[in-house]
């Protein structure tokens, strides 16, 4: 007989329904079977109880944007000299470090995310070296193979080379799944799709080929003044960076915002992860909502790089779906996405805390197409985060989650 386990906690936050004071969640075979007030908990033979004490039990978090392969850059690159110098310093350090040295930081970064309550991640990777670490983890993962190239003459070559790399990675996943039933189950929770780096680092020709080949799932968008200036005028410090790194390639600026430029190219398709969205106005937000894009906000990274924070209230006001990400350890102190939610709660005290919690959990799960995550309901996966109360019970547990400083832990 399969044992049903139920967890009891001071509060259960289902996210998509009201908080439950003195609640329980029952699970069997890794799936939620019931939840409710503790008085309604299942009883009898075959039921095991786990008392979590004075805690809040909630869905695990979704980190909808990071770069695990950059974890070795933690503390290595300063943003004091500005955004473009930060990029150049990052490229220099990456070139100086060996592949094993860089790769050794990926596993601990993944483990740290799991330990702090993250259950799913969208990981942007140039090399696909993170696939193995994610396959061996308990995370559901969308690996986004990042493509960039501003030289239009090399666009076809870039598409072919990156297509071959994804094919090899997918073949490796298939082979491991065939050889090991446990690996088969994990492989079903890992997908590899395509990301374009940004509108100012991908040529029009390359965008055209990517859309023809199936589209773009994620892109950095409206992050910096450098990007905005380049697309509006063709100049600025990004032009200088391209001249140094790629050469004096002609570019006719669209003279419009990054959001409207991508729409002109047909890149803004339903479900695309539009990462950052710091420099957007009402017209941009309205367009993102109309196209069905998801704005993935990374406020701690944005602050570190001197970009400010994304206009949360504006995006919500126009109905743009939201998710949260940390970005990489090169621009963020940790991969604990709960801290990004807490920063937004401090910056936007008038925004409903339920909207921020939704972006941290269910919004991210929907954005990554892991529809059995991000909420506690019958049939959802039993992938949770637990936060200690550490004192008197709060009157508003959602506000407590977002205003507290205590770390959460994962529970699965």
Description:
By secondary structure, the protein is of the alpha/beta class. The protein has 2 domains: 4-58 and 378-411, Urease, subunit C, domain 1 (Roll), CATH 2.30.40; 61-367, Metal-dependent hydrolases (TIM Barrel), CATH 3.20.20.140. 37% of the residues lie in helices and 21% in strands. It contains 16 helices and 15 strands. The protein has helices at residues 83-96, 99-103, 106-115, 131-135, 155-179, 181-187, 204-212, 225-233, 237-245, 258-264, 282-291, 299-304, 312-317, 338-347, 353-367, 397-403; strands spanning 4-12, 20-28, 31-37, 47-51, 55-59, 61-66, 118-125, 140-147, 190-196, 218-221, 273-276, 294-297, 322-324, 384-388, 409-411. The protein has an 8-stranded parallel sheet with strand order 6-7-8-9-10-11-12-13. Helix 5 runs antiparallel to helix 6 (181-187), helix 5 (155-179) packs parallel to helix 7 (204-212) and helix 14 runs antiparallel to helix 15 (353-367). The two termini are 21 Å apart. The model has no long low-confidence stretch (mean pLDDT 95).
Q: How many beta-strand segments?
A: 15
Distance between the termini: 21 Å
> In terms of per-residue confidence, which ranges show pLDDT below 50 for 5 or more consecutive residues?
none
CATH superfamily of the largest domain: Metal-dependent hydrolases
User: How much beta, percentage-wise?
Assistant: 15-25%
What count of domains describes the coordinates?
Answer: 2
Count helical runs: 16
- The CATH topology name of the largest domain reads TIM Barrel
Q: For the residues shown, what is the average pLDDT?
A: 95
Helix content: 25-40%
How many strands, what sense, and barrel or not for the largest sheet? Answer: 8 strands, parallel
CATH top level of the largest domain? Answer: Alpha Beta
**Class by alpha and beta content:** alpha/beta
Oligomerization status of the protein chains: single chain
* CATH architecture heading of the largest domain: Alpha-Beta Barrel
Could you tell me the radius of gyration in angstroms?
22 Å
> What is the global morphology?
globular
Strand order across the largest sheet:
6-7-8-9-10-11-12-13
């Amino acid at each position: 007989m399969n044992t049903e386990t139920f967890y009891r906690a001071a509060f259960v936050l289902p996210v998509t329904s009201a908080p439950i004071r003195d609640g329980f969640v029952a699970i069997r075979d890794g799936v939620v079977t019931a939840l409710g007030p503790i008085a309604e908990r299942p009883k009898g033979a075959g039921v095991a109880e786990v008392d979590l004490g004075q805690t809040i039990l909630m869905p695990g978090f979704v980190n909808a944007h990071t770069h695990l392969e950059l974890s070795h850059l933690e503390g290595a690159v300063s943003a004091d000299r500005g955004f473009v110098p930060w990029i150049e310093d990052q490229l220099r350090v990456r070139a100086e470090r060996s592949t094993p040295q860089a790769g050794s930081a990926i596993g601990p970064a993944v483990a740290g995310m799991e330990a702090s309550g993250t259950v799913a991640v969208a990981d942007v990777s140039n090399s696909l070296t993170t696939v193995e670490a994610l396959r061996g983890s308990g995370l559901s993962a969308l690996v986004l193979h990042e493509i960039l190239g501003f030289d239009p003459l090399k666009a076809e070559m870039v598409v072919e080379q990156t297509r071959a790399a994804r094919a090899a990675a997918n073949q490796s996943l298939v082979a491991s799944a065939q050889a090991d039933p446990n690996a088969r189950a994990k492989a079903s929770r890992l997908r590899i799709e395509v990301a374009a780096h940004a509108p100012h680092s991908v040529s029009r020709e390359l965008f055209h080929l990517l859309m023809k080949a199936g589209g773009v799932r994620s892109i950095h968008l409206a992050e910096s003044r450098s990007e905005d200036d380049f697309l509006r005028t063709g100049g600025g410090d990004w032009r200088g960076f391209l001249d140094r790194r790629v050469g004096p390639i002609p570019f006719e600026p669209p003279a419009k915002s990054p959001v409207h430029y991508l729409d002109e190219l047909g890149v803004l398709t339903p479900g695309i992860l539009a990462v950052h969205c710091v420099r957007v106005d009402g017209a941009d937000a309205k367009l993102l909502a109309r196209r069905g894009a998801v704005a993935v906000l990374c406020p701690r990274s944005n602050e570190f790089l001197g970009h400010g924070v994304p206009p949360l209230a504006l995006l919500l006001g126009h109905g743009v779906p939201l998710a949260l990400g940390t970005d990489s350890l090169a621009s963020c102190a940790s991969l604990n996405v709960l801290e990004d939610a807490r920063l937004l709660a401090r910056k936007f005290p008038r925004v409903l805390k339920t909207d921020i919690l939704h972006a941290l959990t269910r919004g991210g799960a929907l954005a990554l197409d892991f529809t059995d995550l991000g909420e506690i309901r019958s049939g959802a996966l039993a992938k949770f985060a637990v936060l200690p109360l550490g004192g008197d019970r709060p009157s508003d547990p959602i506000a407590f989650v977002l205003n507290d400083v205590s770390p959460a832990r994962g529970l699965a």
